[in-house]
Amino acid sequence: MRxxxxxxxxxxxxxxxxxxxxxxDAEVDAIYSGVxxxxxxxHQHPELAFQETQTVGKLSAxxxxxxxxxxxxxxxxxxxxxxxxxxxPTVMLRTEIxxxxxxxxxxxxxxxxxxxxxxxxxxxxxxxxCGHDLHMAAWAGTAQIMAAHKDRWRGTLMLVxxxxxxxxxxxxxxxxxGLFTRFPKPDFALSLHDDDxxxxxxxxYRAGLFRGMSDRxxxxxxxxxxxxxxxxxxxxxxx
Length: 239
Hints:
CATH superfamily: Zn peptidases
Structural class: alpha/beta
Order of helices and strands: HHHEEEEEHEHEEE
Strand order of the largest sheet: 1-2-6-3-7
Distance between the termini: 35 Å
CATH architecture: 3-Layer(aba) Sandwich
CATH class: Alpha Beta
Number of domains: 1
Shape: globular
Largest sheet: 5 strands, mixed
Number of strands: 9
Strand content: 15-25%
């Protein structure tokens, strides 16, 4: 598994030249083992929506060590980290930080065995089954590369860790808590998602709204599950 997408996108934007492309592989390789270790730790210790305190603590510690101004508790458990580097645009890179109430059966050596109480007080298993662990690791890796190369970019880097993405409530909570009034409003906003429809090591991108959904419906479905962004990969036998 590679964490190239977020690293490549933001790093290439910062450099703005072919030099970035030539040096990118070496930059990623140099930090890869540490980023992978973070990914495995986050995967093994997932937390449900608005319970992401340990997750935020780990991310905050890394970003503070890199020199970011870190604020936690935005929208209850969200995180905002700023690195100001002279005049220039504000670029926001967002990641989700919550996991799902799913039992892991991958057999991985770093598989999650976490159980916890959900908002209704029920004891449920917890797993990063939607890629948020990978997103956070890429987000943190991007921060590390950008902090190490402040001589090559100008502006403000704004890292946002959004809680409760799976419950469709974390973004609103952060906005209502002053995300874009207490902190700079970004000139550019980047988000990412892992995608099993493209070869490993490739990047797909699109400007504007993409794979956005905010409807809520409750039904019982029998069949093979999948991701909401790729319904064609699921199989429904009855509902």
